[in-house]
Structure formats: C-alpha cells, structure tokens
Amino acid sequence: MSDCPTCHQPVPSQAIVCPHCQTLLKAFGHPGIPLHRTETDAYLCPSCVYEADDTCTFPQRPYARVCTLYVSQQQQQAWLAQGNRPRSSARPRLGPVWWIALGLLGVSLVLALR
Ligand code: SF4
Ligand SMILES: [Zn+2]
C-alpha cells in the first residue's frame, strides 16, 4: 500500500487510478510505470537528478509537475549511501514499452504499404 498524492488515502501499489479521488497514479495505463507528481505548487525538476546532471531532454523540463522518470536527489543520495551505482548515469530515454509500440507501428506501416 502507498498513499495517494492528492487525497492521501491508502491505495494499492499497483493501482492505476486512485479509487478515492480518481487521480491518475500510473502512466500509459500500465501498473509498472509510476507517474510522479508534485504535492505542492513546486515543480519536480529542481529536485530531480536528471536536472542536476543536465541529462534530461524532456520538453516539460524545467516545469514538470508530472513525470514518469523523476528521481529525487534525496532518493539518489540514499541509494548511493547503500553502495549502489548512480541511477542517472544514462539520460532519460524511451522505455521498452515505447520501443515495442514503435516497432508495432513500423510493422503496421510496412504491411499497410504492401
Ligand atoms: S526527468 Fe522529469 S522531473 Fe526530471 S528533469 Fe526531466 S522533466 Fe524534470
Ligand atoms: Zn486519491
């Protein structure tokens, strides 16, 4: 269980939409793609590791209030303190779901043009 960022009610960790207030919690309707959002009026980017290392190329930077790839600098420091490697060594890029979707689109185009 985790808490909804909007109504702060407990919600199942796999929930795509908050059952209490209908806030969208996951991206692209997939339970494995978390959707990070601000809980205040502040933007996400100033506290994101991808802003700090200047590797983000998302168009919503630096004014993102919702983002699929947000990693807080505090989370990163805790992660590193546990002896892990930095998570921001690679720039934000298309995930496997998008590559599969693009592949299917390409195959569809080829079949349509035959
Ligand atoms: S990954 Fe998202 S939150 Fe982080 S800098 Fe880029 S747009 Fe902002
Ligand atoms: Zn809610």
Shape: globular
Q: Strand order, biggest sheet?
A: 1-2
Helix proportion range: 25-40%
Separation of termini?
Answer: 50 Å
Low-confidence segments, ≥5 residues, pLDDT <50?
none
Largest sheet: 2 strands, antiparallel
Integer average pLDDT: 88
Q: Tell me the total number of β-strands.
A: 4
User: How much of the residues is beta strand, in percent?
Assistant: 5-15%
The helix-strand sequence is EEEHEHH
SS-based structural class? alpha+beta
The helix count comes to 3
Describe this entry's structure for a reader.
The chain has 114 residues and is α+β, with helices and mostly antiparallel strands. The protein contains 3 helices and 4 strands, in the order E-E-E-H-E-H-H. The strands form 2 sheets. Strands 1-2 form a two-stranded antiparallel ribbon. A hairpin with a 6-residue loop joins strand 1 and strand 2. The longest helix has 18 residues, at 96-113. The chain is globular and about 55 Å long. The mean pLDDT is 88. It binds iron/sulfur cluster and zinc ion. Iron/sulfur cluster binds next to helix 1.
